[in-house]
């Protein structure tokens, strides 16, 4: 996922700089019937300057059919993680062409494209917010049981990474489906350490309104 700070102000009318606060309540299920994905036409026009995230896609779990070895599919993998769909189903539901998927694999997704994708699969009921790593850490205790969201980590280089997160009991499970790895954090210190290890300088979250 490519997160460009120059474009972050145009992501969504619901975008906020801080704090990141997630409302109580469990997320709704995604829509079963989907229309044409006109909002994602920008996927076929990749932005210049995108680079690799440094992550390596898993190739042995049967859930990573796109171009194994490329490094910017994290947006599609995260959608699959949050919806419970397979990656081919995500491609089908979003109406993506083979060229769209190749472009995403090569160049990543801008935050506004991620927002459009989540709105498409959830009937528009998506909130996008942004803030600092500290904002997310301070709000950890407010996440209700079962609350899940997409977590975008912007780095100083401008190239970020997208994962899914879910509150389970006394912990927050952060799943990087691109590399088939789940990290559990149980307190603010562990979450702060995780974000520091990822080099996150700014945080984006997407969740049901």
TrEMBL record:
Give start-end positions of Low complexity composition bias: 49-64
Q: From which organism does this entry originate?
A: Burkholderia lata (strain ATCC 17760 / DSM 23089 / LMG 22485 / NCIMB 9086 / R18194 / 383)
Region (Disordered), start-end ranges: 1-66
The name under which this protein is listed is Peptidase C39 domain-containing protein
- Residue stretches of biased makeup (Basic and acidic residues): 14-24
Taxonomic classification: Bacteria, Pseudomonadati, Pseudomonadota, Betaproteobacteria, Burkholderiales
């Amino acid at each position: 996922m490519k997160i460009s700070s120059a474009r972050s102000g145009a992501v969504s009318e619901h975008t906020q700089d801080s704090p990141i606060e997630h409302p109580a309540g469990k997320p709704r299920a995604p829509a079963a019937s989907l229309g044409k994905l006109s909002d994602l036409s920008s996927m076929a026009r990749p932005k210049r300057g995108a680079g690799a995230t440094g992550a390596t896609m898993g190739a042995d779990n049967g859930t990573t059919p796109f171009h194994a070895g490329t490094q910017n599919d994290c947006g599609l993998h995260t959608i699959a993680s949050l919806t419970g769909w397979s990656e081919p189903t995500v491609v089908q539901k979003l109406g993506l062409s083979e060229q769209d998927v190749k472009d995403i694999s090569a160049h990543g997704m801008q935050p506004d494209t991620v927002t459009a994708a989540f709105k498409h699969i959830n009937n528009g009921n998506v909130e996008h917010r942004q803030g600092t790593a500290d904002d997310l850490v301070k709000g950890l205790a407010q996440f209700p049981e079962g609350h899940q969201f997409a977590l975008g980590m912007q780095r100083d280089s401008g190239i970020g990474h997208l994962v899914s997160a879910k509150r389970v009991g006394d912990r927050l499970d952060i799943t990087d489906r691109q590399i088939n790895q789940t990290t559990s954090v149980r307190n603010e210190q562990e979450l702060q350490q995780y974000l520091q290890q990822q080099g996150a300088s700014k945080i984006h979250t997407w969740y049901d309104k």
